[in-house]
Input
Amino acid sequence: MSGRARRLLVALTIVALAGASFAAEIPLAERRSGYELMSRETRAMQDDDTANPGMLGVLDGGALWARKTGATGRACADCHGEARATMKGVAARYPAYDGTLKRPVNLEQRINLCRTERQQAPALAYESRELLALTAYVARQSRGLPIDITVDARTQPFLDDGRAAFYRRQGQLNLACSQCHDDNWGRKLAGNVIPQAHPTGYPVYRLEWQSLGSLQRRLRNCLVGIRAEAYEYGAPELVDLELFLMWRARGMAIETPGVRP
Amino acid sequence: MANALINAPDRARRGEIIEIKTLISHQMETGYRRSQLGARIPRDIIRLFVCTYNGTEVFRAELHPAIAANPFFVFSTVATESGTLTFQWTGDNGFSATETATITVD
Output
């Protein structure tokens, strides 16, 4: 083969590989919640509120919602009233833009902002039982409602950052989120079906964790899986990625509390 | 925060086989794990679950460290008479939780 022909072949190969790693996004009509890829037994567990262990967290959250706390001695319910009405659809809109911080905040961060600013109570630690319970209780009120993320001039840059993170190869395995969740969903990674990564059920009760966990816990798991250094809980990079994932799942129904294998 | 969810029918016909589901919040710490500093995390599990129907024991289960967190039991019994189903979980560190459900048998 002449040098020129070889160079051409190399160039073509690079073009072909680049094309493969930038496979198209999943068309809206072909999106599937992780629920649909689960076993019949795990689906039954999620569907039955008396078998779904995530409901234990929702129950705890309901108690915390009504408990007075902080220097102001106010409960969530004192301002927000009946969560069933006032929190309906809220989780479907998060992460949402916060005017003071000038960036999107997720539901956990919103709850903690409410605690520190309105209740004057200490912020709850990420992944603490209390914060997961309150988040699950609030998100439960949106079950069945479509994810409805607002994209405007203020949130667009953060959405773009999240999108860039989703398609960026990273870690020692040099993998992008999209290579599993866009290009190979439905196939198996070890024994597990690769889902499309739509965050419809968070906080989820994950059987592997034997507890509720947040989307950020899941994202950090994935980052460790590709041998990248995981961002700290609450890191802006994780919130931007959450924002992109929720936008990517726009219109899909909230399932909180979801059960996942 | 010990929470339990009970799913038992409110009404049943006499002689009918009824299904009862219980879910309780418990971490079920095995006692075999170690903390990041290497110290053993002491065992903290539910040891026993008993269901009585108007005072008569209808279901009993012994639990062991290999049972996952938030134990979920599904069992059945025969609806004999109207009355109360009592569910009791007991375990390590003085853990005890009791729930009841009433059933009307026609």
